Structure prediction request, 260 residues.
Amino acid sequence: MKKASIFSKVATDLFWVQLFWAFGFLGIMLAIHVVKVVLAINSDNDIEVYFVSTFVAANIFMLVIGIISSYGLLPHYVSNGVTRKDYFKGATFAAVGLSIALPVITSIVSVIELFILKIFNMSTIFTTTFGERVNMEDDGIVAEIIQSIIIAPYVDPQSNWLLAIFIVILNLLTFYLLGWLIGSAFYRFGVIVGIVFIGISIVLVLLENALLSIGLGLTVPDRFSSYDFSLSIAILGVVVIIFIVLWLIRQLTKRVAIKM
Prediction:
């Protein structure tokens, strides 16, 4: 019971700390979005809803938070008597919670946004062109890597809100864990091994991207074009990737020396 209470407290603390950071991030994104909405109204241009406009930046945000988890948060908790195992379990639950909270919050804001603009008959400024940008043709491995990191597989929220939120949750959790993995490798072994794990993370991102893209019927590189399976199989594959990353993180952190 005591151990359970320790990791659950770590999970709760980490969730609220990181959610506070997320509110700062979302606040900045909202301010930028409001400016873009005003400009779109005045210039008769199209714009994405808030949920979509935060999609790209949120992946990068989660990657950075994951890195911070290994460099800043792990030493803090371990130096205060929390075991590495309890930190790992607590941080994992916090990551899941944060990955769920972000798209839920942006969805609520988007619903409010649409409601307000519909009152003034201005909701027509919103577009779904982001979904079209996701379905880009294969432009080589470098372009594929950039697209996988910046523009992950995406579902138009206007077609299926629940699926759109769920896919974003998977993307955010994957990026958080990969950031945690990269940070853990750098923290324990230094630059050379850290760079190797960056390469491993890129491969895993490309694999996750391919799985979800195939499952969602999005355009994929030629090397994956012969594959065809359902979304449920794709999601199962992503879950397997997530557990592999968690296992790697655990191996890297369970005996890591804390640097003061």
About this structure: The mean pLDDT is 85. The chain has nine helices and no strands. The chain has one domain: 2-253. The longest helix spans residues 2-43.
